[in-house]
C-alpha cells in the first residue's frame, strides 16, 4: 500500500500548480480554440512531466535510474542538441505563406520592420529588471509573435526560461484579437482608423515569386549568418510553394509535416515546464514582459505608419490607414484579419485586408530576421 501511495504523497504544491496550469492551457485550446494545436499538447505535457517519478522524464526511482524518458529524450535530441524541431517547422510555415501582397507593394516591408520595436524595448526593460543578457534577449523575442522563433532563440542563447517563454509566446499569439485592438486604439484616433485605402495590386509573375525566397536567403545570410537556419528554412518552404513543380510536397509541408512537427514540438517543450523551473516569480515577470513586447510591437508599427503619413501629406498624397502598421507582427493571418475587422467596424465597407496581409507576411520575415540578429548581437557578448 505504501508503494501505491508513494506517488500521491510525493506531489509538491508546485507540481499541483502545474496541473492547474496544464488544465488551463487545455481549456483554452478546447473551449476558446486558442492555438489548439500547440496549447493542448503543451498543457497535457505540463501534467505529464510534473507527475512524481514520471516515466516521461529521467528520474531516480528507488535508487535506480530508469531508461531515458521519452519527453526528455525528445527535448534533448530535437531541441537542445540541434534545435531541429522549431527549425523544421519553418518549412511548413514558409509553404503556407503567399508573399504576393507584399511583392506587389514592397514598401509594406517597412511596416513589418517597424513592428519589431517591441522586441528591443522588452530586451531593454528585461535587463533593467535584473535578467542577464541571454535571458533578456530570449524574453524580448516573445515580441516576435512567433512561437518557433522564441523557442529557437532561447535555446540557442541557453536561456533557463524556455518553458515560460514558449507559454507566453503561444498564449499571446492566441490573444492577438484581444491585445491588438487595445494597443491600436491607444495610439490612433477614430478618424485615423476610418481612413480608406485603394488596393491596386501589381501583377507578380512566377519568376519574381521564385526569385524572392532565393534572394532573401542570400542577402540575409550574408548580413546575418546566424539567421540562415531560420530564414533559409522559411524561404525553402516558400520555394516549395512557388516553384510550381512540387505541388504534393508543398501540400505535405503545409499539412501533414507541419502538423506532426507542431504536435511533437508542443509536447516536447513541456519538458521545460517542470515545477522546479516554472513556478517562480520570474515566470510572472516573463509573462508581463511578453505582453509589453506585444503591445510595443503593435504600437511601434502603427506610430511608424503615422509618421509615414506626415510625409505623404507633405507630398500631397493619400495617407495610409495606420492600423496596417500593427499587422507587422508574425501572427499571420490572424493579425491582418483583426485589423480588417476593426476597419469594418469603424467604417462599414472599408476594406484594407490586402494591405494588412502584405504587412503581416512582411512581419513574418522581419521577425525571423530579428531573431537571427538578436542571436548574432548577443553572441558577441557571451
TrEMBL record:
Q: Which residues cross the membrane?
A: 12-30, 37-56, 84-100, 107-131, 161-187, 208-237, 282-308
Q: List the GO molecular function terms.
A: lyase activity
Q: What class of enzyme is it?
A: lyase
Q: Does the keyword Cell membrane apply?
A: yes
Q: What is its main location?
A: membrane
Single biological process term from Gene Ontology = sodium ion transport
Query: How does this protein lie in the membrane?
Result: Multi-pass membrane protein
Which Pfam families does the record match to this protein? OAD_beta (PF03977)
**Which chain positions lie within coiled-coil regions?**
none
- The stretch of residues making up the signal peptide is none
Recorded GO CC terms: plasma membrane
Q: Where in the cell is it found?
A: Cell membrane
List the PANTHER family hit by this protein, alphabetically: OXALOACETATE DECARBOXYLASE BETA CHAIN 2
Q: What is this protein called?
A: Sodium ion-translocating decarboxylase, beta subunit
